[in-house]
Amino acid sequence: MHGPASPGWLLVVLCAATGTYCLLRMRSRVEEQRRSAGGEALMGFGMAVMAVPATAFAPPVWAWPGYAAVFGAAGLRALWAARRGPHHLHHLMGTTAMVYMAVVMSAAPGGHRHGATGVPPLTGVLLLYFAGYVLLSGARLVPVTATGAAGAAVAGGTGVAGGGAPRWGDRPELARACRLAMGIGMVAMLLGL
């Protein structure tokens, strides 16, 4: 995560922008949108702070256990919420990755953990999951016909019926783009671990 400064700052901007959009989505009229947007905002801002290049800011030693505690609590919440739908399992994977990265960073704040032994197994599993998630999310963003898109918006729970356009915070394709951006950010952070 603490590689060259320019890609690190780009990752910070991507994650902070995603977190900001997710905060705005919390104003949605749709209850499920608000619930998931809160967890996604936490992930976006947490990833942004974690991605700050070490040359700009070296977190105090207590920061990494604090990260692990915050994201561990968010993971327990996601585990509890998983009984409502499979989307929360993705939140659980995200919080697990954040806890894992915090633990790794607390053990070696300078970054690189691979060495001659290769990629640690848990890093590899998380990389495979998030790379697959990015590919699947990207495929879901492929445009569909106008009739299919309108039907998907109503079926997606936006609360819009009768042909009215959903509010920008309730648009499912924007929520998917937000999740895609965070997935890409997670892959980049895990690759730099």
Defining traits:
mainly alpha, globular, 193 residues
Q: How many individual helices?
A: 7
Q: What is the SS-derived class?
A: mainly alpha
The average pLDDT value, as a whole number, equals 81
Distance between the termini: 5 Å
Our count of domains comes out at 1
Oligomer: single chain
Largest sheet: none
Order of helices and strands: HHHHHHH
Strand content: under 5%
Low-pLDDT runs: 111-115, 146-162
Number of DSSP-assigned strands: 0
> What is the general shape?
globular
The percent range for helix content is: 55-70%
Rg (C-alpha, Å): 18 Å
Question: Outline of this structure?
Answer:
This protein has 193 residues and is mostly helical. It is built from seven helices and no strands. It has one domain (5-156, 164-191).
Task: Give a structural overview.
It is a single chain. With 193 residues, this protein is mostly helical. It has one domain (5-156, 164-191). Helix content is 68%, strand content 0%. The chain contains seven helices and no strands. The protein has helices spanning 5-25, 31-50, 63-81, 87-107, 121-140, 146-155, 172-191. Helix 1 packs antiparallel against helix 7 (172-191) and helix 3 (63-81) packs antiparallel against helix 4 (87-107). The longest helix has 21 residues, at 5-25. The chain is globular, with a radius of gyration of 18 Å. It starts with a helix and ends with a helix. Mean pLDDT is 81; it is low at 111-115 and 146-162.
Topology:
Layout: H1 5-25, H2 31-50, H3 63-81, H4 87-107, H5 121-140, H6 146-155, H7 172-191
